[in-house]
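Subject: Predicted fold for Glycosyl transferase, 367 residues

User T.R. writes:
Posting the sequence so we have a shared reference for the thread.
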Amino acid sequence: MITISLCLIVKNEEQTLDRCLSSVAKLVDEIIIVDTGSTDLTKTIAKKYTEKLYDFKWIQDFAAARNYAFSQATKDYILWLDADDVVKEEDAIRFKVLKDTLDPSVDSVTMKYHLGFDSFGNVTSSNRRNRLVKRSKQFRWIGAVHEYLEVGGTIINSDVAVTHSSIHHDSDRNLNIYEQRYTNGEQFSPRDLYYFANELLDHRMYERAITFYEKFLDTKEGWIEDNISACGKLSDCYHGLNNKQKELESALRSFEYDSPRAEFCCRIGYHFLQKDQINNAIFWYNTATKLERNANSWGFQNLSCSTWLPHLQLCVCYDRIGNYQLAYEHNEEARKYRSDDPSIIQNKTYLESILHKVEENVQGEPL
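User M.O. replies:
I've generated the C-alpha cells; pasting them so everyone works from the same file.
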C-alpha cells in the first residue's frame, strides 16, 4: 500500500482548517502545513494534527508556496488540498479503496472537484484536478495566481471527489496581484490573460474583462476548455452590459472550439425564451437534454444544464404553446432531480389539473 503526504498552504484559516484536516487525517500518513502569515488561530489548530508546520514568507506567488510545501513531503505520494476543502464521508471510503489498491506505477490521480451545490444537495459546478501525485516525479506548481500543477506520465481518473466549502474569500487579493504584475509591464501568458479577465469579471469590470478575454482568445494558444469558458464569460459580460445580441453571439462562438455544450444550449434557449420565440427555445433546450455529459471533463461544468434545468424550461415552453402533456412530462423529468422543489411541485399540481379537465372534456364529448 502506498503512503501519502498531505500538503496545504494556509493563511488565517481558523474557520475552516479543523474541518478540512479532520476529514482527511486518517487517510494520510503525513501532514505538511505551510503558513504564509496567519494572525489568527490557524497555527494552533494545525498543531493538533501535525508537528510539520512551516513558515513561508509571502511573496505574492502561490506556486512558490505550494512548491515549498511539496519539498517538505517524505511519503510516496502527495495529496494537496486547500483549507476550505473537505473530503466527505462517502468520498473518504472511496479514497481508502484507492489508497489500498493504487498501482505504484501511476504518476498522478485526478479527482473530481465539487465547487457548487443547489439547495437540494445536487452538484451544480464541478471539474477535475490532478490531486494525488507521485513525489519522486517532482512535479512543480506553475503560476503566481491560479496556479496549476504540471504533471505527466501515467495519469488515471478516480471516482473520489473533493468538496470545496468556502466560508470567506479575499475578493481583491488575486485581482491586486494581477494588477500589480500588469502595471509592472510583465508579459502575461495566455493563461494569465484568461484568469486576469476572470478577476475583472468577478469585480463587474465588464468592459476591461471583455478586452482581456479577447486578448486571450486572439493568442489562439489557450487550452480548449478555457477557450470555451471564455465564450461563456464574454456572454456574462455582455449580459452585465445589457447587450443581448453580443451575449448571444458570444455563446454561439463557443461552437468554434467544440461541439455544443449543454450550458450554452440552455443559455441560447433562454435568449429565445425571453424574446418569446418559443419554438427556437424548445429546440435549444431539447438539444441540451440530449447531450451526453462527460464525467471526466477537465473543464468547469454547470451540471444543472445537463440535468433538471432544460426540462424545467421545456415545461415552461410547452405550457406557453398549450402542449400541456409535454409540459407535464418534462416537469416530471425535472422532478427526478429536485423532488422537493416547490416550483416543480406547483407545476405538477397545475398541469395535472389542466390535463384532468382536458380528459373530462374528451370523455364528455358525444360519440
